[in-house]
Design goal:
By secondary structure, the chain is α/β, with parallel strands linked by helices. 46% of the residues lie in helices and 16% in strands. Helix 5 links the parallel strand 5 and strand 6. The longest helix has 28 residues. The structure holds nicotinamide-adenine-dinucleotide (NAD).
Amino acid sequence: MNRLQGKVAIVTGAAGGQGSAEAKLFAAEGAKVVLTDVSEAGVLKVAAEIQELGGEALALVHDVSSEQEWKNVISQTVNHFGALNILVNNAGIYAIEGIEDTSLEVWEKLQEINTRSVFLGMKYAIPEMRKAGGGSIINVSSIFGIIGSGRATAYTATKGAIRSLSKTVAVELAKDEIRVNSIHPGIIATPMIKTLLEDPVQLKLRVEATPLPRLGKPEDIAYGALFLASDESSFVTGTELIIDGGYSAR
Ligand SMILES: NC(=O)c1ccc[n+]([C@@H]2O[C@H](COP(=O)([O-])OP(=O)(O)OC[C@H]3O[C@@H](n4cnc5c(N)ncnc54)[C@H](O)[C@@H]3O)[C@@H](O)[C@H]2O)c1
């Protein structure tokens, strides 16, 4: 129940999918949670659900690719809850196209939302975590940050960058007791994979290719994030937590 008691966490992309599952689980475990997303209605709804269950939550509209908005989110978090201990860089977007069909615009948009966001979030969270005596940063990559997807060129590149960025910052910040880890979800049933969910043939193929033969649930990822956010993982930094039902182990 109290694995995050007294801690303050920011979860980006918390209006739905994995981010809302993480925000709800963190709040249930005693954290004060700041939920951010471009969808105002979405974060307000999830924050209200947390508050109805007696949790503490603050919803903020936030485009993770904006430096100014990151500065505002960090300062509003500290003004409202007094500190910052945990950051989950979860927000992201997907593009399925292979290399020849990927426009420069799509490439750059994914770099901005998926990768620049992680850089900015860490950069502005670190001073507050240092003041708090340490912290935990969890960057959401993908199994396609480790293995090739055979398509989704721009997306795969952003997720690979998140993996190595997490490791180098982990080494740099260990002296400050700030831990940095990446999570690598497999195929998780969220709005991001709507097209796949609506394609029974492709869906069956993916499930059959998964040793634990099902789709992942947002909660499967949230439990991994909870471990990395909590003091239970105090000797864990620079690692990559794969949660994919064994898909990438084949
Ligand atoms: N679903 C999967 O199969 C899967 C697999 C591997 C990795 N991931 C990663 O997990 C993370 C969460 O994805 P999800 O599956 O919950 O998808 P999702 O589409 O359900 O959620 C993503 C959230 O990010 C928000 N968002 C989009 N652009 C934003 C921006 N510029 N600023 C702030 N918020 C923004 C969206 O509004 C949405 O609420 C992403 O980083 C994604 O790449 C997902």
